[in-house]
């Protein structure tokens, strides 16, 4: 732009003239007279004496450029003033300065300025507004302000409360490395273009409730106080990668229309995403949660959770959550999912859609165990216990195998110890074993007989005697039941 080299030349000349000398005093009335005459104001390194009060200015307009660089301005009032040209206040030190309802038609440049008291409520910036490196020693308000082009607050320091409520940012906004020592209010703010808060520090409350954030970047931000993003509408890629939430993080009723990136973030207290809508991919990979993670009644389209860390005692709350895809292996979240039948069944369905059969089985098994534990004694609980011990609720075929082997061994020992089976002295086929004893079978023969009874029917050259005939019937029935359970459970696992 043509004004940049001209303004730079003026400032450099003024800076060269003031090098090596102390600030020279200049009455505020002289500046007011220049402004009233429509003359440009260009000063560097001066100390303005008296009140620079433009509230009585005729027409409340400053038609020419005003440049006050590295100046000391104890008291200034620009309320309702329109700066028709550029307003440059580089490095100036303000005592009490009020720019409420002011309009900046040209560039507004406050880079490295400092304010003891300041107000910009309702101010309008039609050209870039530059506040990089600015120091606000006390509370400052930008409420209802309007930024038509880029707004830059990089490395700005807000030592008191800062209020941006109801302000509009129609272009890019930059808060990289900004320091918010007090509470920071960005409620009902419209950030229409991308905003950059990377490496900023919020020592007090960070309040963005009901705001509209487009492609916000909060990478490596420290939220030392509560972070409130409830009812926020996020559009574009919303990034909180590497951010630290030292206090409660509230995203209740927020809506992420596009991707949400939380990978590498750290939540030291409650992370609240209740009733939140993730309409795009939400990434929580390698994220650490030291408090509860609450997705109660949220809507999740696709959430990546691999490698996330839930500390001991942290709960993952998925009650009434609508889950499409939740990519977290069961062994990563087991022991943290708060008990609610619908939440577990939603995870089971999620694992089925992902094709993660082992995770589906493990989650379903835990669901049945917890459901059984909550039942009072009765037939329902007894049947559940039988389903658990026999086949692991239909997802553990190894349980049926273990019980089958145990049954075969138990009945085999019973037959052998009680001399409950005898071998025919004249086998129907085959040579007589050398070590066979007609009056008593060996342990090996007893185990063989028990195995055959369990699987189908006993060999015809062994006969049970006495009450052991009933044990044979019992073992046969038990064998049919366990084999059926094993085949059904195995078939379910293999077909899937």
Describe the structure.
This protein has 496 residues and is an alpha/beta fold. The chain has 2 domains: 3-290, no CATH class; 397-495, Helix Hairpins, CATH 1.10.287. The chain is built from 9 helices and 50 strands. It has a 22-stranded parallel sheet that branches. It has a 15-stranded parallel sheet that branches. The radius of gyration is 39 Å and the shape is rod-shaped. The two termini are 67 Å apart. The model is unreliable at 1-20 and 434-438 (pLDDT under 50).
Oligomer: single chain
| Principal-axes shape call | rod-shaped
Question: What's the number of extended β-strand segments?
Answer: 50
> Which secondary-structure class do the elements indicate?
alpha/beta
Mean pLDDT: 87
Counting DSSP H or I runs of 4 or more residues, the number of helices is 9
Taking pLDDT < 50 over at least 5 consecutive residues as the criterion, the unreliable ranges are: 1-20, 434-438
The biggest beta sheet, please?
A: 22 strands, parallel
Strand content: 25-35%
- Total domains, how many? 2
**Between the first and last Cα atoms, what is the distance in angstroms?**
67 Å
Q: What percent of residues adopt helix (DSSP H or I)?
A: 25-40%
Instruction: Report Rg.
Output: 39 Å
Question: Quick recap of the structure?
Answer:
This protein is 27% helix and 28% strand.
